[in-house]
Design a protein that fits this description.
Number of strands: 10
Number of domains: 1
Bound molecules: 2-acetamido-2-deoxy-beta-D-glucopyranose
CATH architecture: Beta Barrel
Number of helices: 3
Oligomer: single chain
Radius of gyration: 16 Å
Shape: globular
CATH superfamily: Calycin beta-barrel core domain
Helix content: under 10%
CATH topology: Lipocalin
Strand content: 25-35%
Keywords: Signal
Distance between the termini: 21 Å
CATH class: Mainly Beta
């Protein structure tokens, strides 16, 4: 999820997000579609509503091949075919640090760029992760909070996450929606998510909810396979020089 808040320059880039529950959670069986949408406010914001019946995703749930389909960040939306492939840093410890690996194309160029960092589950707040980039992004930090997760009206899983402003790039706080399919959520589920966010008790969330735009998912990576590993070269993030402002 996320990406994008940290690296944005001319084209804006991405970083992502992610998370694993900070403590064990029961597996909640959610229904699908708009009536099953449950969201909380970011727990770190003052006056945040905990969300009725909200539960964090089950351990390991987040480790899936995600596509960013809706974002409040209009610059990040210009990145093409944004994917996020989180994995645990230590395979046997799905609640520990997470490899935060995103990949995307830019307008008029089919080269696939990657952005890597490590996200550490926050020890105070459940389903909140503290991200830090590596290599040229070593000073880029952001905090991600899971706001919601479930499956849409077509039965495909999705999640909604909030990320704090990134001081390094002057990027504002924002909210992203990720789906297992690049065509995104059914309209009714999307509408329900946005409507709930617009009614948040927190003014920042209400304002962010007015600014959603679809990410560009144009099929330009179909058949290419996911990027799930980041070697030492990848971790330098140096291919982003010239891409991020
Ligand atoms: C796409 O971007 C890569 C990396 O910056 C660059 O080497 C390549 O020349 C670009 N291709 C086009 C068609 O602009
Ligand atoms: C956990 O989140 C709180 C609130 O944003 C923050 O102050 C704290 O530094 C975070 N903990 C870590 C270890 O990053
Ligand atoms: C990160 O910040 C430190 C301390 O300000 C600085 O020495 C270092 O060069 C920065 N790293 C990058 C990649 O900008």
């Amino acid at each position: 999820m996320g990406v994008s808040r940290i690296l944005e320059g001319i084209v804006a880039a991405v970083v992502l997000v992610s998370f694993v529950a900070a403590r064990p959670a029961p597996v909640q069986v959610y229904g699908c579609g708009p009536s099953a949408v449950k969201l909380r406010d970011p727990p770190t914001l003052s006056g945040a509503s905990p969300g009725l019946y909200w539960t964090p995703p089950p351990i390991g749930w987040i480790f899936k091949p995600w596509n960013q389909v809706l974002t409040s960040n209009s610059q990040a939306a210009q990145l093409r075919n944004f994917q996020w492939d989180p994995t645990p840093v230590t395979h046997s410890d799905p609640t520990g640090p997470m490899n935060d690996l995103s990949s995307f194309q830019i307008p008029h160029n089919d080269t696939i760029f990657t952005s890597y960092g490590v996200a550490i589950p926050n020890d105070t707040y459940v389903a909140v992760l503290d991200y830090r980039g590596t290599g040229i992004l070593e000073n880029a930090t952001s905090q991600y909070s899971w706001l919601g997760w479930g499956c849409d009206g077509n039965g495909f899983e999705y999640y909604v996450s909030y990320s704090t402003a990134a001081a390094a790039s002057g990027t504002p706080a924002g909210i992203d929606v990720m789906s297992l399919v690049d065509t995104g959520l059914d309209q009714a589920t999307t509408d329900r998510i946005v409507a709930i966010l617009k009614q948040s008790e927190n003014e920042e969330i209400r304002n962010i909810a007015k600014t959603f735009v679809p990410n560009i998912q144009d099929g330009g990576r179909q058949g290419l396979g996911r990027i799930t590993d980041c070697d030492d070269e990848c971790k330098t993030n140096k291919d982003l020089i010239g891409i991020i402002g």
